[in-house]
From TrEMBL:
GO terms for biological process: lysine biosynthetic process via diaminopimelate. It catalyses: (2S,6S)-2,6-diaminopimelate = meso-2,6-diaminopimelate. Pathway: Amino-acid biosynthesis; L-lysine biosynthesis via DAP pathway; DL-2,6-diaminopimelate from LL-2,6-diaminopimelate: step 1/1. The active site is at C71, C71 (proton donor), C217 (proton acceptor). It comes from Clostridium taeniosporum. Belongs to the diaminopimelate epimerase family. Keywords: Amino-acid biosynthesis, Cytoplasm, Isomerase, Lysine biosynthesis. Its EC number is 5.1.1.7. Its main location: cytoplasm. Substrate binds at N11, N62, G72, N73, N190, E208, R209, G218, T219. This is Diaminopimelate epimerase. The keyword Amino-acid biosynthesis applies.
Amino acid sequence: MEFYKMQGAGNDFIFIEDFNYKIKDECELAKKVCNRHFGIGADGLIIVRKSQNSMAKMVIINSDGSRANMCGNAIRCFGKYVYENKIINKTKFSVETGDGVKEIELTLKENKVEYVKVYMGKPCFDGKYIPLNNLDSLIDKEIVVDNETYNMTTLLIGVPHTVIFEENKEYEVNLGEKIEKFNLFKEGTNVNFVKVNDDKHIRVNTWERGAGATLACGTGCCASAVVAKKLGYVSGEKIFVKAPGGTLIIEVLEDGVYMSGPAEFICKGNIIL
């Protein structure tokens, strides 16, 4: 099976084309190819397919075999992949995802994709849609997990994200594993530990649901910027979000959230399953 490996701000993915729907057990395939010792190694598997309502369809499966509706770093890589592999020949186009249709805009340099901008949609704080257990919303509330108190805000931006600000102390990103599966979250949550550097710059470390600690999470950077602006930690339209693997630019506007950042090919080859 032919594959490409790509990364966006250090979040790495295996891309496989499946226009004829020949792949049957996608989740088991993801666990095999994403394994860093017995497979290729990646945070997730991305399957490229045809779409009925957009120019292409992106299927995302985490390294543990669980499905994800959306991934910000993956969709930037997806935009570069379909353009440079001549699947799509436009620099503005729509992509079908598990979180609906997303709009992509490419910036080219010598006919290569240098930067990708994605409309990520509007964030949702409604506990029914996140979904939360027995809460209408979770905005800047103190929650106790394993005798540790955290000020949490949780929202849905493609996938559930919980944002915790490091005001008086720093947190190890691995603490996200306990919070991910805390009983408040019906389907688990991604966890973002955020430090505010100034009114336009924040730092984010993310524990991803289904993947663990990653070098970057696009939806997590978006969620962190949205909450930072909502709670008054930052101002202005553009927020520069630094993750361990790189920096993304997040714009929080009235019509929704826009994410811009790089995407790169790592390698291509064949894997024997």
